[in-house]
Amino acid sequence: MPVNLSIKNVPDRMADALRRRAERQRRSLQGELMVILEDALSRAGETVTVEDIVRQGMRSGLRTAADSIRIVRRARDSRHGR
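and the corresponding structure tokens:
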């Protein structure tokens, strides 16, 4: 049986961001909130380990901290025309 939920005192900034997100997805605010809840609950049982993070970094080509620093600097420099 469906249940009605209510969230009170949502900061304006957060409510505006949720409305914009819903609009971009062509959903009602209610529909967007349902998608967010479903997504969060579907991942609730997932535990991310350090090994998972390391594997993800390795797959993306990172081998050392210097690699990530180099990638961040390159992205920053390209935004600033360097």
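(Above: one complete record from the training split.) Helices lie at 12-24, 29-42, 50-59, 65-79.
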